């Protein structure tokens, strides 16, 4: 095979490997999304449970204060019982106490319901905390694995870049310039194989005589349509 053509084929293989590694590195952050989304969802659910717990605790405290205030009113009324003179006043006095006591009992029942709800929220919060912790550990584990993989890819890329410099130094400057222009213009593929009189770069037919010359791999040929370098590989 023509020495320059051979170098171009090998350089294309190196550049294809570099581009492939770059794509893999770029895709790494996206691989974490399948672990980030459940963690975020669980964290939001936990915050919601905690917010409900805090609101319920605050409401319970307010109700307890209301019950205490009512008890104080009842105590004050009871202390005035000895000053009542008539039966009518006494009946009104008892009715007022009864009204405050009914209201107090109602509030105390509400407090009991809230206490049960708080207990349920506590259990639910504990379950959500365990879930969040497990998902966080899994996320950190995956982040560590991806960081290790990223470091491995970077090391592999540096190896190919070093190897690439060796090949570039051997390629004629005008040939390399043409190669780089094609690489940028043709989606990272400047050198392609031919088979059955077809360019594998653009699937265009190659004239029979030119194809016979390409099969010899003695000279550098370009596809007349996509301009890529062409070579033939024995099957």
Structural write-up:
This protein has 235 residues and is mainly alpha-helical. The protein has two domains: 1-27 and 172-235, Helix Hairpins (Orthogonal Bundle), CATH 1.10.287; 32-158, Helix Hairpins, CATH 1.10.287. The chain has helices at residues 3-31, 33-79, 87-168, 173-185, 208-216, and strands at residues 191-195, 198-199, 221-222, 229-232. It has a four-stranded mixed β-sheet. Strand 3 and strand 4 form a beta hairpin.
Characterize this entry briefly.
By secondary structure, the protein is mainly α. It has helices at residues 3-31, 33-79, 87-168, 173-185, 208-216, and strands at residues 191-195, 198-199, 221-222, 229-232.
Secondary-structure element series: HHHHEEHEE
Can you tell me the CATH class of the largest domain? Mainly Alpha
Relative strand content:
5-15%
Biggest sheet, spatial arrangement of strands:
2-1-4-3
The shape, in one word, is rod-shaped
Helix/strand class: mainly alpha
The radius of gyration over CA amounts to 41 Å
Looking at the overall shape, the CATH architecture of the largest domain is: Orthogonal Bundle
Query: Total domains, how many?
Result: 2
Helix content: over 70%
Biggest pleated-sheet summary: 4 strands, mixed
Could you name the CATH topology of the largest domain?
Helix Hairpins
- Which ranges are low-confidence, i.e. pLDDT below 50, for 5 or more consecutive residues? none
Number of helices: 5
The chain-level mean pLDDT equals: 93
The beta-strand count equals 4
Distance between the termini: 15 Å
């Amino acid at each position: 095979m023509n020495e320059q053509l051979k170098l171009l084929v090998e350089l294309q293989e190196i550049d294809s490997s570099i581009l492939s590694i770059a794509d893999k590195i770029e895709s790494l952050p996206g691989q974490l999304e399948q672990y980030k989304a459940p963690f975020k969802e669980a964290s939001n659910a936990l915050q919601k449970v905690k917010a409900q717990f805090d609101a319920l605790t605050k409401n319970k405290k307010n109700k307890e204060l209301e019950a205490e205030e009512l008890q104080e009113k009842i105590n004050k009324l009871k202390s005035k019982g000895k000053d009542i003179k008539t039966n009518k006043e006494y009946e009104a006095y008892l009715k007022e106490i009864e009204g405050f006591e009914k209201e107090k009992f109602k509030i105390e029942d509400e407090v009991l319901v809230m206490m049960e709800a708080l207990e349920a929220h506590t259990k639910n919060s504990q379950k959500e905390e365990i879930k969040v912790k497990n998902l966080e550990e899994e996320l950190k584990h995956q982040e560590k694995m991806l960081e290790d993989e990223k470091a491995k890819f970077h090391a592999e890329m540096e190896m190919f870049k070093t190897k690439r410099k060796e090949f570039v130094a051997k390629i004629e400057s005008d040939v390399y310039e043409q190669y780089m222009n094609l690489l940028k213009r043709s989606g990272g593929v400047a050198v392609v194989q031919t088979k059955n009189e077809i360019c594998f770069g653009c699937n265009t037919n190659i004239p029979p005589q030119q194809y016979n010359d390409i099969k010899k791999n003695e000279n550098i040929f370009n596809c007349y349509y996509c301009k890529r370098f062409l070579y033939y590989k024995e099957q």
